[in-house]
Each structure stands twice: as C-alpha cells, then as structure tokens.
Amino acid sequence: MLAIKRRIDPAEGSRAFSRWIEAAASGTEALPRPVLAMAVRYTLEELATRAEGNSVEVRVPPFGVTQCIPGPRHTRGTPPNVIELPAELWLALAAGTLAWDAALATGRVTASGLRADLSDELPLV
Description:
125 residues, alpha+beta, Nonspecific Lipid-transfer Protein, Chain A, four-stranded mixed beta sheet, 4 helices
C-alpha cells in the first residue's frame, strides 16, 4: 500500500495536538479554532497512516475526514462503515483520555457498519 499524502506538517500538527492535550488536562479555556482544526486534521492523518486502508470513513465535522482500516474498498456513494463524532471527543480518543466504549456510551458517536470500530487503533499517543 502507498503511504497517505500528508497535508498537515507533522511537527506543527504534533504541537497542536500537544497543546490540546495540555489544555484538556488543565481544564483551561478552549483552544483557538485554527489550533483545534490542526490537531484534528493531524490526528486523522496519523490514524490513516497507522491503519492504512479504505474500509472505514472517520468524519470529524467540520474539520476533516479520512479513510482507514484495511478491508474492502468502496468506490461510490456513502461507504458502508462510517464513524462520525465531534472534535473534542475525537481528540480525547486519540489522546487516550477516553476509551472507545466510553465514547460510544456518550451517544455522540455515530458508528455504522461491521468495521466501524476504532478500539484497536486508538489511542494515537
């Protein structure tokens, strides 16, 4: 398989993600929207790099979307395996401060399809 093409500079993305982790741990004010967006996009790219594939689509509106997890590839329309969740929840999963099952229990994660499970891929740190 080919490596994904990164749009976010890994060093800048890692800094934004670290800032989000620090802010979340200290309970400080929300980060500026551009920092939040970069942290989300960076972690989505990390997920796609580590779990390369096209069988699951992960959506974090309005910041980004990626495809990951090896398996059958879809080519038209909505993929059969889709995960959608808010940015703060996604970053908590990526940082390991929230487990996949706990995220599902919030009712704020939409996960459809047999492969729509990121528990083996997270956390990213």
